[in-house]
Amino acid sequence: MQTASVTYQRQKKHFLMVVKRKADSLDMSLKSSNSNQEKFEQIYQPLQREHQRHQEPAHQSRKNLSEMHDEDPGKDKTSQNCVERDLEHAARSLGTAREEICRLAAQEPQGQGEEQRKLDSAFEKSQLEVEKLKELLKELKENGSADLQKAKEHNRRLDEEILALRNRVRSLDSEKKVLGEEVERLRGEICDSPERKHLGNHSPGKTYRPSGDRTKSQPQEELQQLRQDLHRLQVLCSSAEKELRYERGKNLDLKQHNSLLQGESLKIKTELKQAQQKLLDSAKMCSSLTAEWKHCQQKIKELELEVLTQAQSGKSLSSLEEALAREKSNVAAAEEKISDLQQKLEHAHKVCLAETCILGKKQLEERIKEAMENEAKIKQNYQEEQQKRKLLHQNMNELQNQVKTLQDKERQLKMTNVQQQLRIQQQEAQLKELKNERRLCDEHLKSNQELSEKLSGLQQEKEALGRECGRLLKQLDVHVRNYNEKHQHHKAKLRRVRDHLGHEVEQRDERIRQLESDVRALKRQAEKEKEFQKQVIAQNDTLSLEKRKLREQLVRQEGIIDKNRWMLSSVQKRVLFLDQENKHFLENNLQLSQQIDLLERVVRSILIRRGEVRVSVSSPSILRTLLRPARGLLADWKPQLVTSLNLKH
């Protein structure tokens, strides 16, 4: 955008310099044209009326500009004032140029020819500059439409992310409700735990007090830990609620901001509809180019498949080189055709110059009038397009600022989402720990109840055991006697077992020796396998180096193919551009031939009205003198066309 504005300013300065030069040259001619004031007054009155008619739309456009300034007083006042001053200066200079052209119409044909050449050349230069300015405005509109499409896509992404954030907030609310229910359930269980303790204290196991005291102290400590965890959970839940409120406020702000952006986008859409209608023709051309591009892509894909299938063999390289050589030859042939077309165009241009030498004076005057009318229309269109471009610049700047703010808000929301996810994960881990601790408490309570029941059973068993002790003492004597007899028998068995163990130990030592020999053999085999692995690794390294070299060759070939594609596309674009220029030249030739006929008729009618006697004798010389400016005009026009073609290519 900055480069476009710089080029626009340069072209505007050049246009003003040309207009000033015209004014200076016309001032010099005014000094020599004081003798023909009566004829000038007769011709000046209708021209002045036409000039006033052309100036009316310029005044209307200035009024519109002033209204736009009143609506937006704080936006770009300095730039618009400068543009208005330049336009006023240009209008004044063009008015003086028109007056001087009318004065020169009454002068002698010899002095008038040179001045008309200068004026016509300057006028055509100004027309070319106006066309260039139109092209710049079209490019600026296209850039603005592309930027607006990017902004729309960015807004869509923001809407999707806002919906995801809303879903996330809903899930957080549901998780919060679940956490609240679990906290209430834990509180109820904690209230039930002291009642269970009270019941455990009134159990019949009073004889074993020290063990009961220990079991009581453990659940009390666990209850304290549970209370601390509950307090932490409450703090975390309160912080989560605050964060959720903060995020909801942010979401509301984002909704309001998005509504404003949507309103602005609707305004921009209405402004862009007109530009889209102008771009339909370019879209048709693009469709034809895309069809050709797809055809080229199909050919390129076929070539790529051939490269992939034949990459392993060396024959593929030779075939690709031959294909590239053919493409280069085709490109050279296309360049030769382009050079032939350029020569034909030069020949046609020379023919047009020869034909335009038959033009007359009055045809040039009518052409100047038409050019003046076209210039007024061009000024109106230029002012309207300039206003639209300024509005687009303002909208683009506002959209860029809004996009930056939205990006900052997106980053903040992402950071808050990450923090919330971390906090939720921490809360889930703490909930799991609390659940585990609760399970442990339940298990301890159950174990306490079971122990109390066991104590009552053990007391009853103690009384039964006291009774049985008497019987057992009597039976001990009998068992001791039997034990002594069995002990002696057992010693004899031990001796036998020792002898058997000594024999088995000798067999084990022999097996250990055999296993050691087997281990040595396995170590040797392992060393051999390691050496084999080293050899395989070395071969793999060599193969990988070869693979890299082949990949580099493939990359080079692909680069060559891409260059050929680019050359083909550039040649196609040049051919299309030359066809368009040929059509434009033919249309200009037809218009010039029609204008030549009209000028000849007008010259003859004027000569008849003046009543000159030497019409038949001096008409060829008059026509030659009148057609000299046309020759100069076409001679000046040719290098400008060549330079414009070179710049576009």
UniProtKB/TrEMBL annotation:
What stretch or stretches form a coiled coil here? Answer: 123-189, 317-475, 505-532
Asked if the record carries the keyword Methyltransferase, the reply is no
Q: Spans of biased composition, class Basic and acidic residues?
A: 48-84
Region named Disordered:
28-84, 190-222
- Please name the InterPro entries in this protein's record: CCD-Prefoldin_beta-like, DUF4686
Could you list the residue ranges that cross the membrane?
A: none
Supply the alphabetized keyword list: Coiled coil
Name listed for the protein in its UniProt record: Coiled-coil domain containing 30
Source organism of the structure: Sus scrofa
